Amino acid sequence: MRRRSVWAISAAAALVLTPLMSAPAHAVEVREQQYWLEDYGVTEAWDTTRGEGVTIAIIDTGVDGSHPGLNGALTGGTDFSGGGDGSGGPVQQTSTEHGTLVASLAVGRGEELPEPEVIEPESLEDMSQEEWDEWFDQFLAELEEIHGEDWEEVIDEELLDEFYEERTFPGMEEELELDDEDLAPEAPDVPWNQRPVGVVGVAPEANIISASLVLEDPNPNGPGTEEQIAQAVVWAVDNGADIINMSIGSGVQDWPESWDEAFLHAEENDVLVVAAAGNRAAGHWSVGAPATIPGVLTVAGVDENRNISEESSSQGIAVDIAAASEPLVGALPGEGYATWTGTSGATPLVAGAAALVMAAHPELSAQEVKHRLLVSADSEGAEGVDPEYGHGVINVAEAVNGNLPEFNADDYDTLADWIRVHRRADDGVNGNGADIPEDAEVIAGPEGEPRELPRAAEVRSAQDWAGPVTVAAGGLVVVILMTLAAVHLISRRSRT
Asked: Which of 333, 340, 352, 472 is nearest to 40 (CA)?
């Protein structure tokens, strides 16, 4: 294969980052923006499973497992960039936060609200005026964080003025106690977290392992992206991954031959690879590798109204399914959150959905899990498989619980078949009968002997008989011309 000198691996990782608040009250705001949990049937699927027992490998820029919203989710990790500490944590680069954002959408645990704080009147009375003013300013700031810019419409202004002047008022303990329902009125009632705020992933009880990379060429720390990715995929398979999330893309459809063995290793070990289609904003109008590799589940992006994202979704025949790519929220390294866009975010939503299907149906193979996701999708775009939507927008509840068409392996391409057909010449295959496609009608002879050539097929189409007819017609024209020439010559001799 001809080598490519440019691998814009971070193309699917194009971000529009708008930092949000990092305190627990801000986590409330983030939780309320996750429209896909209801729209895609995720919360309904949680009645059956939340992904327990499934492991997703995040091959990306590294994951901050210490983030409060990922508490306990990261169970292992390593670094392939040469620039990390070996834990799979974030590695310094242009999009250092990318891996953490991705992980939170797949398996985010959410956060618990702090216990309501009751103000003790005695402690306020003992403050100096300066201490009191400083405390009161902080108190007003917290009210704004909790209730937003319109907090003054929620709080009684006269009562607040009286509180400042007197530092106390009747029933102060009850009035100033923070109510859970005021903070998170729509928080789902789930056993694993009675009061969830912050980013809640599609599979909040699945675990992740992290392979940290530097998705920039050249890598100042050592190995290039091609080598890092090949090593990371093999490591993920060998370290217990059931699903590999790859929110990365190259902008070219073919892939380095060094990836054949790595992705075949995943296929042979029944590991589902989920990859981003790529982003138009990065100049990639067509899906690029690794999303073009046979067997990979390729994810396109849509907005809240299920329209294909004009800037965040590449198109092509490799697209399998679509999920939300804008607007998104996610966790940042540390304790913060951010809004962002891109098929990088749509991909972990689908990876999380795959984890729910695996947990609900542990008897299924990776390809059968992929099948359930595709045939249960809500159809969008052109009839059949659309180059932008694929099979449609993901329907998690139906994928987990639906009565769906049976799986037929012949309907799905495999990397093993592709390698057997397309890498034969590169592998120097000769007459020993190795790697001959089953439908090639070629019979392998003993070692060292030439193979028997395929027998001529019966005449069945215009292409079969057009060649012979053309040759015959050409011959007839030549005969006619020769005859006319001979007649002309005889005629001239007769006149002389």
From this structure: 352
328 strand-pairing partners:
340
> From its phi and psi, is residue 119 left (phi > 0), alpha (psi between -120 and 50) or beta?
beta
What is residue 6's DSSP assignment?
-
The backbone torsions φ and ψ at residue 297, rounded to the nearest 5 degrees and listed phi first, read -90, 110
Quick check: 102 and 60 in contact, CB under 8 A?
Answer: yes
Amino acid present at 117: E
pLDDT in tens, the chain (496 residues): 323 323 444 334 444 454 454 444 366 678 788 999 999 999 999 999 999 999 999 999 999 999 999 999 999 999 999 999 999 999 999 889 999 999 999 999 988 765 555 555 567 778 888 988 888 888 888 777 766 677 777 677 777 888 788 776 545 444 444 444 444 434 444 433 344 678 999 999 999 999 999 998 899 998 999 999 999 999 999 999 999 999 998 878 889 999 999 999 999 999 999 999 887 665 556 788 999 999 999 999 999 999 988 776 677 788 999 999 999 999 999 988 988 988 999 999 999 999 999 999 999 999 999 999 999 999 887 777 888 899 999 999 999 999 999 999 999 999 999 999 988 655 554 434 344 444 444 333 333 333 232 332 333 333 343 344 444 445 544 444 554 544 444 444 444 4
Write the CA distances from 242 to 180, 208, 323, integer angstroms: 37, 10, 21
Q: What are the domain boundaries of the chain?
A: 11-111+194-411, 121-177, 465-496
Fold of 11-111+194-411: Rossmann fold (3.40.50)
**Structure tokens that stand for 288 in this block:** 């690029």
